[in-house]
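go over whats below:
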Amino acid sequence: MLQNWLKIYLYNCKKHKAYFFLTILCLAMGITAVLLSTLYIKEESAFDQWNTAKNEIYYVEYKGEVSSSEHHPFILSKLLKEQYSFVQDYLVYSGYTPEKITYKAKSYQIDKVIQSNQSFFDFFPYPFIYGTKEKLFNHPQEVVFDKEQAALLFGANINPIGEQVSIDNQMYTVVGVYDLGGKRSSFMPEAVVNDFQFIAEEDLVDWNYSASSLLIKTANKEKASQAIEALYQEHFLKPMAKKEQTSLEELLMLSGGYYNKKAKLYALVDLHFDKENTIQIPEKPLNPQFIYVILGLSWVLLILSLFNYVNLSLSQALTRAKEVGIRKVLGGLKQNSIVQNLVETFITICLSFVVSSFLTLWILPFANTFLLTQIEIRASDFIWSFIGISILILLIAGLIPALYISNYKVLNVLKGDFHRNRSGAWIKNIFLIVQFAIASCFMIGTYIVYEQVNFMTQKDLGFRGERVINFPFLEQEYGGDKQVKYDAFKAEALQIKGIEQIAVTDLDYGKIGLGGYAIFFNYEDLSLDLNVSNVEASYFEMMEVKLKEGRFLKANFANDSIENAVINESALALIQKETAKEVVLANRTIVGVVQDFHITGLEETIRPMMFVLPSEQYNNYRSVSAKVNLEYLETLIPELEKLWNVFNSETGNNFEYQFVDKQFARSFETIQMQKKVLLFLSYIVVFIALFGLFAVSSFTIGTKLKEISIRKVLGAETKSLLQKLSYQYVIYCIIGFGLSILPSYYLLNLWLKDYAYRIEIGYEVYLVCFVLMVLLTLIIVVSRAYKATKVNVLKYIKYE
């Protein structure tokens, strides 16, 4: 019996080669999507799961409605451990910084260097190859390396303990080599230095010096939160209130909510999935919404493939009715027909999994690069996925056609009128409509995402950055006379052919932070906070930022350096004034208002800002901007780099520059990734839906060839036949598109709400997608219908 079933299965595959191949391909694409998304989620969910203390380690954030503090004074962590027994240990750290590491004649840049204290390997117990964690960081300026970085610097299987390396022009002693071992963690540094183990005494006791993030190890989260709040109040807020000669309650009220903060603790096990996008950990957290979207889209793709398979099976059943009828006449049981169809479905699943395995292995390297992850496939992943997905497909795509075919009436089949049997037709129609609805949703979504990307890339940002390059100059903490060196550098750089203007700034385009610092003060009856940024007098002119009112700051006006400032339109709106004339904010007279211009991404509104001239005393700027003539770019960059190296020899860093417009474009990276994912999936979804339509229409029209022949003999025109054959599919397309309108509108508005500057979803979006969907449907259906109208009439009516 099984042998007979296999012969019939192979016969039908050969008879319908194209449909068989496309069915396998569609199912394989759906399986691949689910398999990759499942592996991705499994990989991301593995973060920190290996850490035995994952439920006792907490990230500390001091959070309020107005502002939040991710960095804390060093003294906080010290007092927590000394005064509260339920705080077992603490870890202070910085984010990753790229550093140039020099060993003898070899130099490498290591991108993931982290500053920390002695507890790092108690919190993250990576195994040591050379050295032990008990003997680490007992002396200043010590460093440990990951195994791979140590091999690059010192050679493979070489013990580097005691060797001296140069980091940022300072000598460090190597005291260990550890192995990340493929473990996934929120902290995976390539090198750890103990700069936070030995802190200068004045910094260690200063509550105003917040330079590090903080993890604590405790078994009592609630008590730890209360302890942090108590320490902040006792050592920071009360002394501040005393200094301002006011009460603590008055200080909290006058701050406009800035100091009304609570300690919020996040468990290490939850750090990688940051719903609020505020956690500052070295390995970038992942928004769980993205996970849900990826998983949902992959399952939609698989379900669409299943619907497609069911429709195709039901349509093919019309050509196999005589086979079923003859089996029943010869004594075949209904159960046998069901089992036969399930066996055929299982074979199809197996073949689809074979194709899916090749697709997965082919796509995986691109997916790892695209998603910035390290997904690996194991045999167990395939086995469990095969079992789970096979059961699902057998229940949906195998059982429905099997029950439909097994229920054929023998007499109807033998009389030849089984084509009139409408049993199961409603299932095909519903599945086809659902396919149209899903494809329409993807098409509308892709259109909206493209429009939003175009809107963001073409929006007037309020500045011109395509000819302005940014590059660092010395370190912000440079101890020498930075201003003198900058003035000398600027004078020589302006002599380079192609450099038109130079100015310093601390603005950082395209990042979450603006640069600069925040101030909080009262103005009339308002409690305000502004971001203050340092810009050189010529900066706005160079960036072509427009002046709305008053004047720009000028370097030759003495008062502009210490008493005057410029604000943007958002700041003017914040103080509820129509003009900035005679306005004094935070002891500075406002002499001008510039039009709003974007610094961070378009996800957030332009913040109220004040601009002041850089202070020579504090060297408070982070980069130099230069406006260049692009015709001379190839020659001026090498000259500028040579000059920069002369003035930045103390840093040991390499000259790196970036155009400002490219810097700002970093804020588009997420939406660009979403666009690519959605576009790719849309192509697949529309392809599957149209193939399903092609297959169903082909088989259905194929059952009406005798009817078409008779109508042609009776004088029916081709036009009327095409209308009759195509009409129902166009109706299904319209119904499916109609069903997609509300879900797509809701989901896309949900997505767009994250953008402060966004497009509106208008009727034209739906009109364009509707016309395109109907046209694609007509192309498929009319092509099949037209071919049917050209049949040989005599072949189908010779028995009539």
Observations:
- The first helix runs from residue 2 to 15.
